[in-house]
Every structure is written in C-alpha cells, then in structure tokens.
Design goal:
β30 (565-569), α15 (578-584) and β31 form a beta-alpha-beta unit. The longest helix has 20 residues, at 247-266. The protein has five domains: 2-169 and 219-290, TIM Barrel (Alpha-Beta Barrel), CATH 3.20.20; 178-217 and 685-741, no CATH class; 311-412, Translation factors (Elongation Factor Tu (Ef-tu), domain 3, Beta Barrel), CATH 2.40.30.10; 422-517, no CATH class; 536-683 and 743-787, Alpha-Beta Barrel (TIM Barrel), CATH 3.20.20.60. Helices cover 23% and strands 25% of the residues. α1 runs parallel beside α9. It is an alpha/beta fold. The chain is globular, with a radius of gyration of 31 Å.
C-alpha cells in the first residue's frame, strides 16, 4: 500500500539519528560497535542503542539494527547476545547477511523482523522467494537490478522489498567482492572494506592501453526521477546509503526524498526541482549522479576523481603566487542553466583545486577591485589567500556551502521539532478536589491527581488561557499538544502557578516512559539451544575437482589423470558440447557450475537435455536452490560465503550435501568446519562480479559494441603497483569478473579433512596436469606470482 511506504535513512552517530528523524525518515538503520558492515562508522554500544530506540519510538520512527557481516563460529554467541539485547530494547528489525545466523534469529525472535541484507546478493525472483521461505520479513535487493526487474519481483512476490535509492554504489555485487580481502587482508564481508575500487587503474587489451583513471569508481546514485515508478511497482522501503556520511548529508538527502515520496504519493504533478538536485550535489557527489542500474546506463563510472567532488564552478584563469591570488569566471557549461540559478560562492564556503587533496575556506573575494561577499554565475572574481599546487586551467570545485550547512544543522539541533507526536491534554481544577491532569496519545493514557490547594479568588481569578499557557510549555520535547481541554470552577485562585508546571512535567515524563517501555520485550532463549556439536563423521578426503572456466572442444580433457570431478559452467551445457561431455562423463563426474549472478538470459540453459549427463550442480546463490534437479548431488559454491557451521547446517537442510569454503577463512577455522567440503587450493580468485563492462563502458551490452570479449583477447586492469588483474566478460548477461593478479596455491597437506578444487582459466592441458600432480603431492607452487590468500591471516 502506498501509505505504508518507508523512507529508511542511515545513521552513524546520534547527530545522524536526529538529522534523519527530524527531516522525515520513517525508519533508520544503524550499526553496533560490533558486527557491522560499516566498522569505521562511530556506531553504538548497548546503552546508546537504547537511547536511539527511545528517541525514535517517541517520534513514531522505526529502528533497524545491522548485524550484516559474516560471522565466525566463535563470534556467533556474542552476536546472538547483541541481537537479544536489541530485541529486548525494542529494535524493530535486524539486517543480516550470514545465513546460519539469520536462521537462529528467525527461530528465536518471531515477533522481530529479520531482513536479508543486500550482502546476500539476492538479485532475482527465485532468490526473493527462497528468502521468504526461509522466514525473512524483507529482502534488500542487489543494487544492480533494472527498474523492470524490480517491477517483476514486486509483482510476483509477497515479501517486503527494500531498494537503495540514493548514495554511493559498489561496482561489485555486494557480498561478492573479495578484492579488499584477498589483496589487502581487510574483508568487505567483515565490515572492513579498503575500497580498492576507488583507486586508479589502467585497462589493457593484450598490450594496448585502452583506458585509465578511476575505472572501478561509480558515480553516486540518485533515483528522484524514478520515485513514482518505484512506488507504483510496490517497493516497501526506500533506502538511502551513507552510514559513513555526516549528519548534514543525512539531513539533506532525507528531507529531499521525503518531499518527493510525499509528492508522488499525493498524485499531484511530479517535477524535480533543480534546487533540490543542487543541494544533493552540494552535500556529496562523485562526478554528478547516475541512475545506477535502474536503466541501461553508460554513465555509471566517473574516472576523474574517486571521492566527493562538490560542484565545478570554473577554472583557474590567472595566478599571482606572491600574493596568493587566483582568478576565475563563475561558469561551467556542463551544469544545467536552471541549476546555475541556485549556485553561488560566498565567504565561508569551502573549495578545492583539481591538483590539491585538501580544501580551502573562502575568506576573501574581489570583483572589479572591490571586496565582495557573494559571487554568482558569470562573475569574474579573484580569490585571496590561496597557496599550493595550482596551475592555469585547473578546475575549481565548491565543496561546501556555509549557509546550506547552517540550515541543515538547524534542522536537527536540540531546538528542532519537525518530528513530534501529537498528544491531548485534559485538566480538571475544582475547589475541594484534587487537580487531575490526563494526557492521551493513541492507546497510551496518563492520569495524574495532585492535592494542589485551590482557593476562591478575591480579585484575580485563574483563567483558562493562563492554564493553557502553563500546560503548553513543552519545548525540546518529543510531543506537541493537539488540544487542551480545561474543566474548572469559576473564580478560583491557584496560589502557586508553578505547581501546574510540575504536574505537566511529571505527566510528560510518565507518557515518555509508557511509550518507550511499550517497545521493550523479554526473552528466555539462550544461545545454548543452538550450540553445535563437532561433527566427527569421517568423509572420504582428497578427491580433486577441476573447474574449467573456459571449455575448448578441441582439448582432450579426458587425458587428465588424478581427478574425480569436472565443474563446467552452465553456459557450455549446449548441444555443441554434448558429445564432448558424454565422453568425459565416462571418466569423470561432471557438475553443472552455476553462475554467481543469474538473470533471465541464463534460464533457457537449464532446460538443455545435455544436463542429463551431469552428476550434479555447484550452486552459487540461494536463488538456485530450487532451480535445479535436487535428485542429483548439490554442492554450495564459495559464493555462499560459508563462514561457520551454522550456515553449513542450514544448507544441509536444503539438500546441499557439500560446501565450498570461503577463500576468506584462515587455516584454523577451515579445519574446524563440519561436513563434507571443498577448498580451492589453486587458481586465480574472482575478486569482483560486476554488472558492468569496462570495454563497452556500459551496464548493458549494446549493438554497436566491438565485441572484443568474443575474440579471446587478454583483457586486464593494471594497478598503481604494476600488478595485472585479468578480466573475463560474460556477454550473456553483461557480467564482468575481475580476477586476482596472483594465483592462489595452497599446500593440501595442511588440512585435516578436505576435498580439493582447482580453478582453471586459460591454462593448457599440460599445465593443468602439472597442477593436479602438485596438489596430489600436497605441495604448492612457489614464487612471487603465487599467494596463500587468507590461509595464514585473519580477516
């Protein structure tokens, strides 16, 4: 229903909570100091969470706590206790990534909503329906979905759908990025992303450089133009990104989206005001905005700068370094003329210069020889007190507006009362009876009676107006008074009028207590109920599986020795390869290797009769659990991010007999995992799965593309250190996979109980056999081109 639409705002500290609530959020989301995907935000401890919940409850705003990282076995009990404390305090919902942990919460707290985080990479209808079966109340969809895909999912599911509507975008599908972890030892899945995507790269085809810049850094996302369509589609919750952002950002973005959601709900003419776009750009933008993946988009990446760039207001025309002066004309032809009406430069604003990393506060401006306080479009001005690496034609950016920031701060300061709940008061003042004050809000009632002496007035009787004046003094409160009914004798006198103030204060205090305590819950569930016993069952170990990321009909894979299983990507299961696979199935067990991301283009492949020669499936996402023939063996890929034994147990319940361990786990934790399992002991680790083609510079394949991806070209990114990261493009659904610059190679003799998997990209048959032999001997390849990944470090 349209009336149920939720605007969900991010909060990294208490100022952000006030900024979100006072500017129109229906709900906020925030992290604790533990187990948050934004570990670098200030976040909240238990007492602070209680303060947040009380503040929001008093203003009819819901609260969502994020416990949305992957959890290790020795962390789950502590995470459970955090969730239990949040439940008892009155948090409305918890956002979770880890599947095993999510099921514990779903089973433990049926009257608290559990939301499937975007980190679960739910990107199709099948995944949404599976989340509903698992007991999630809501799914936060992957940000890579088009408007049409969102509409289709909403139309064909009953679970609540949440979508991001504004803010920073990850270039990789959330939950499927291992770049920070494998290269820097800091896991994005553990809340410590090093943002490798915001660094500069060069793009090469073979040895020819095709592009350079911040090639993995998306522009920020702005969906104002799509709000009416998203509402019509049936999206329940509109989510703003930004738990690392300051309260001014939270205030501005929340207020503006509140305005346009209300406008769309009202059915009135929907037009986006350029002044609001300017304000959004001024508080934070990366190279202006894009529509993200809501539409086919070749404007997704901004390769010039990876962080906030403000607004370009001109270029340096002259420099006087001795006097610290630069001159410019206030003009930028790339900014819409209507937008320029809202842009000026004032004393107190901050600016940055193209080659400089810091900012300058504007303290002196000169126009036509006179000092000025404000400069507008086409003004030729000189700015004083400027030093640094500044050159002619450098771009000048307005980074912040002093007046805008003051306005935004005022919107959430202690005097701000934009968000209140309405109460009604009724007071009875009768001689000979106790004074009675009744305060009402919805189903909450407070009745106070006090023996306050009332006398017959001799000359200045108490008036209703005076009573109302005293009762109305509730500034800096969560309440506003809707009505005050006064029932009083005529000609009465109250010797001490301050007693009405005390009565009012006590009634308000009791009403606050009633409302906040109404959200409190109790729970007798203890974590011991979910404790797992170490599975001592012995499994056959040492089986070797080979994943062929590419299949060549001319290669005699049947000549390989020492392996049991071949994993073959779904896209190769066509009639073209039928005879090849039938022959291979006489020697090996063949498994259909499902793609990490699976959109509709792939579904026809599942109907292929060629699949009949397969032994089973390697599934990569919860969406695929019910897509495949479950009479065959099912293996969970590493993309399930299996980090603990609770997730293994949950996957077993869904017919998955074997899991592939996460490449982010260290040796100690790998050896403590229960059940039958694979570990990837050789291969280049996929670092990112992107709904974007770096060659075509688009999130959708298009007819005019040069199709370099079909010509077996060696395409790769080179970083600042000279390392090359191979890029494999899937033009069936415009998915690009970026692989590690180094090849993982691990000693199998280090493991107590494992099957081993070898991942092949373009190695020839002889090399593949050499790798198999090395793995069978329990050894690894040595050299600077190899890595042990996270085996010997904790992320």
């Amino acid at each position: 229903m349209v009336d149920d639409i939720e605007l969900l705002s991010p909060c990294g500290d208490m100022d952000c909570v006030r900024a979100a609530v006072q500017n129109g959020a229906n709900c906020i989301y925030f992290g604790s100091k533990m187990f948050s995907a934004r570990a670098s935000a200030a976040n909240f401890d238990i007492e602070e969470i209680k303060e947040v919940v009380d503040y929001c409850k008093l203003r009819n705003v819901k609260t969502n706590l994020t416990i949305n990282i992957l959890l290790k076995d020795d962390e789950i009990e502590e995470a459970f206790n955090l969730a239990k404390a949040a439940y008892e305090i009155g948090v409305d919902a918890i956002i979770v990534q880890d599947l095993g942990f999510a099921k514990i919460l779903i089973d433990s707290f049926p009257d608290m909503d559990i939301h499937a985080s975007t980190q679960m990479t739910i990107h199709n209808l099948e995944g949404v329906l599976e989340a509903e079966k698992l007991g999630f109340k809501r799914v936060v969809l992957s940000r890579e979905l088009s408007m049409e895909e969102i509409e289709y999912i909403c139309k064909n599911s009953k679970i609540e759908i949440e979508c991001f509507i504004h803010g920073a975008l990850c270039i990789s599908y959330s939950g499927q990025c291992l770049f920070s972890s494998m290269v820097g030892g800091r896991s994005g899945n553990r809340g410590k992303c090093a943002q490798a995507c915001r660094l500069p790269y060069e793009l090469f085809e073979n040895k020819t450089r095709m592009d350079e810049g911040y090639l993995l850094s998306p522009r920020d996302f702005c969906s104002l133009d799509y709000i009416p369509r998203l509402i019509k589609a049936g999206v329940k919750s509109f989510k703003i990104e930004g738990r690392m952002k300051p309260p001014e950002y939270v205030a501005a973005v929340t207020r503006i989206y509140r305005k346009y959601i209300d406008m769309a709900k009202s059915g009135s003419s929907y037009v986006v005001d350029k002044k609001d776009l300017y304000e959004l750009m001024q508080v934070f933008n990366r190279g202006n905005f894009s529509y993200g993946h809501l539409k086919e988009n070749n404007n997704l990446i901004f390769k010039e700068k990876p962080n906030n760039m403000g607004l370009c207001i001109g270029v340096v025309k002259s420099i006087n370094k001795e006097k610290g002066l630069i001159s410019l004309k206030m003009h930028n032809p790339q900014i819409d003329e209507d937008m320029w009406k809202n842009i000026n430069l004032e004393i107190g604003d901050t600016i940055s210069i193209q080659r400089e990393t810091g900012t300058y506060t504007v303290s002196e401006m000169i126009k036509d020889g006179n000092n000025i306080k404000v400069a507008s479009k086409n003004d030729v001005i000189t700015i004083g007190r400027m030093k640094g690496n500044i050159q002619i034609d450098d771009k000048i950016y307005k980074m912040s507006s002093k007046n805008l920031n003051l306005k935004l701060k005022k919107s959430y300061d202690n005097n701000s009362q934009n968000k209140n709940i309405k109460i009604k008061m009724k007071i009875s003042l009768n001689i000979g009876k106790p004074v009675c004050l009744e305060v009402t809000y919805e189903n909450y009632h407070v009745i106070l009676k006090r023996d306050i002496p009332l006398e017959k007035a001799l000359n200045k009787p108490l008036t209703q107006e005076k009573v109302i004046e005293q009762l109305s003094k509730i500034s800096n409160s969560a309440f506003i008074i809707e009505t005050i009914a006064v029932c009083m004798d005529s000609d009465i006198f109250l010797p001490n009028i301050k007693e009405l103030n005390e009565l009012r204060r006590e009634a308000i205090k009791q009403m606050e207590k009633k409302i906040t305590f109404s959200s409190r819950r109790t729970s007798n569930i203890e974590f011991e109920k979910f404790s797992l016993i170490k599975n001592e069952k012995k499994y056959q170990i040492g089986d070797i599986s080979v994943l062929l990321n590419n299949v060549d009909n001319k290669v005699k894979y049947e000549d390989l020795d020492g392996i049991k299983n071949l994993y073959i990507p779904l896209k190769f299961w066509t009639n073209e390869f039928f005879s090849k696979f039938k022959e291979l199935s006489n020697k090996f067990d063949l498994y259909v290797y499902m793609p990490t991301i699976m959109k509709s283009n792939y579904y026809n492949y599942l109907k292929s009769e060629v699949l009949g020669v397969s032994k089973g499936y390697v599934v990569s996402n919860i969406s695929q659990i019910n897509m495949i023939d479950k009479t065959k063996k099912v293996i969970a890929n590493y993309t399930f991010n299996v980090f603990n034994n609770h997730t293994i147990e949950e996957l077993h319940k869904h017919g998955i007999s074997r899991i592939t361990a996460s490449p982010e786990l260290d040796l100690e934790r790998l050896n403590k995992m229960n059940g039958e399992k694979d570990i990837i002991v050789y291969g280049r680790t996929p670092l990112m799965n992107m709904s974007y083609c770096l060659i075509g510079k688009s999130n959708k394949c298009f007819s005019g593309c040069t199709k370099l991806c079909r010509e077996n070209n060696h395409i790769y990114l080179r970083d600042r250190m000279g390392f090359d990261f191979p890029l494999i493009l899937d033009n069936i659904q415009t998915i690009s996979t970026l692989y590690n610059s180094k090849t993982t190679s691990i000693k199998t003799k280090d493991f107590s109980s494992y099957n081993y998997r070898i991942d092949i990209i373009d190695e020839d048959l002889e090399t593949i056999q050499e790798i198999i032999n090395k793995v069978r001997m329990g050894e690894r390849f040595e050299g600077k081109e190899y890595t042990s990944g996270n085996l010997n470090r904790i992320v």
